[in-house]
Amino acid sequence: MKRALLITLNEVKLYLQDRGDLAFSLLLPIVTFALIYGAFSGQTLFKATASIVDEDHGVYAAQLIEQLDGIDGISIEMLAPDEARARLDNSDRLFVLDIPAGFSAALENGGRAQLNFWQRGNGGLEGQILSSIIRGLAEEMGKAFLITAQVSINVQGTGVTESQIDAAVQKYLDAERLTPALSMNEVVVGGTADLVNMYLPGIVTMYVLFALTMGARVIVEERRRGTLERLLTTRLSAGELFFGKYIAAIARGFVQTVILLALAYAVFGMFTPVTFLESLFIILVYSAAASALGLIIASVARTEEAANWIGTVFTMFMVMLGGTFFAVEPGSVFYMLGRISINSYANEALRKVIAEGGTLGDVVIPLAIFIGVGAVALVISRLIFKAVPGGK
User: DSSP characters for 216-229?
Assistant: First the structure.
């Protein structure tokens, strides 16, 4: 047992000294996690650039542009008419607001003014949202003019000037805008923490399987170079060598898991100390099962390339069937196929503990499956290992 652990320590030392393997195993999972979190970070604020052609240059055109620019998430881009049409023709822009000449004058004189929406096709999703926002602002401006005109009629002959009416109406409109009588409360469902809970288990289990591929490749390379045969000329037995390689494979997959979970713990505060330790235990048992499967790959592959291909196909198969990044409908054909993937049980166990506040008692079945798969795979890989050159 002592000699087997020395083999394990040597494997871990070589692993930590190999900058390429170390970067792939530790940095790539973190980068992947950051990319997925950035893409699905639960950002609910609409962001867009409003392209505007101002042919009016009047006070009310400026007021409309100022109100639109004051909305969070919207930036303004002023274009000349010819430039706007050229960009629409080239599909560089899908939606442009045109404020025609005479817009402000028509409003001042109590007439009817209009805005023009230039768009390519349906204007795209962003353009449709912008057009709705602009319509809302235009309606507010129209209501302000309607109220002013109505007040002017009601106070006619009282000596109240137009400027006083405009100031009073604007005062109450501003007050209503700041503290509206009807407000809306936004409740975000599926925010940042939920997304982290959803994707973290899949990332962790996927990269444990990637570590499986790397471990298989290393064993195949040592067997091809005769390193295993030279080791067996020492007092080291085949069983000790085999067990040392197995423990090293578990350590390789477990190390990157600790880093990922520690990152989630420190940055997102998504664990309690108890759930953090429970998650580590689940991954440790899962890594043991996955490493045993990796030894089967190492035993049947004859070249490093073959080990890489077998491991990659095996990993993708497990990831796709295991519901790693998307929910699988229970009872569906895909769900039934996923039952043969150990990833499905690992993902369920981690989500049970991380997202639902479960305990190890709630994930006994997945843990039992990992132990069973690991035991069977160890026996099979040991039998194959004996039958290949360098394994006796």
Answer: HHHHHHHHHHTHHH
Closest Cα partner for 104 from 143, 58, 170, 149?
58
From the list 92, 83, 151, 143, the residue with the least C-alpha distance to 120 is 92
As given in the structure block, the two tokens for residue 37 are 């979190």
Question: In residues, how long is the chain?
Answer: 392
Element (H, E) at 48: strand 48-54
Which contiguous run of DSSP H or E holds residue 147? helix 124-154
- For residue 392, the model assigns a pLDDT of 44
101 domain-assigned: yes
**Bridge partners of residue 52, in order along the sequence:** 78, 97
Domain extent, residue 253, equals: 2-41+192-387
Average pLDDT, the chain: 77
- Give the separation between CA 134 and CA 76, rounded to whole angstroms: 12
pLDDT (tens digit, 9 = 90+) per residue, 229-245?
A: 666 666 666 667 777 77
Helix (H) or strand (E) holding 337: helix 333-338
Q: Are residues 239 and 348 in the same domain?
A: yes
Quote the tokens at residue 4. Answer: 């087997």
> Which region among 11-20, 204-213, 258-267, 313-322 has the lowest average model confidence (pLDDT)?
11-20
